[in-house]
């Protein structure tokens, strides 16, 4: 017995939201790409801490490496739903961190070695973890990108495909 789209919606116990949509790669692909980029930025930050006007301290670089490792792991080995949850969580954290950076106030001198003076400097741990304007811009962009991917829903045809496959397995067709 095969089920069409309409019948699938009407089948009791079959919810399109309950199925892992592995053939909908957006969240997983995003996690793979961002994970690799953040790992690279974390490593490069140790080599060039003032890269692109950012305040890349050792702690900041470690955060990028850990975030990148989690994103890459989920992108390559995690489920679609785990990737979406990661996108929501880290999107909120990064967006709020960016907003806090801009709300931190004007022109506080940095206490991190040879880092440049910044108009908006958020000092989470003075001398160790400080975020400037460039950091805040990147954090907001990353946060919004993570959230957009998290909120993106797979196309209905792909959700139905996953639900049909799951139904076939349950019915052993």
Secondary-structure blueprint of this entry?
Layout: H1 5-10, H2 26-47, H3 58-77, H4 80-103, E1 122-125, E2 129-131, H5 133-151, H6 156-171
Antiparallel strand pairs: 1-2
Helix pairs in contact: 2-3, 4-5
Q: Could you write a compact summary of the structure shown?
A:
This protein is mainly alpha-helical and 173 residues long.
Walk me through what this model shows.
The protein has one domain (25-171). It is built from six helices and two strands. The protein has helices at residues 5-10, 26-47, 58-77, 80-103, 133-151, 156-171; strands at residues 122-125, 129-131. The protein has a two-stranded antiparallel sheet with strand order 1-2. A hairpin with a 3-residue loop joins strand 1 (122-125) and strand 2 (129-131). The longest helix has 24 residues, at 80-103. The protein starts with a helix and ends with a helix. Mean pLDDT is 78; it is low at 3-22.
Number of strands: 2
Q: Percent range for helical residues?
A: 55-70%
Low-confidence stretches: 3-22
Strand content: under 5%
Number of helices: 6
Sum up the overall morphology in one term: elongated
Helix-strand makeup class = mainly alpha
Key phrases:
173 residues, mainly alpha, two-stranded antiparallel ribbon, 62% helix, elongated, disordered N terminus
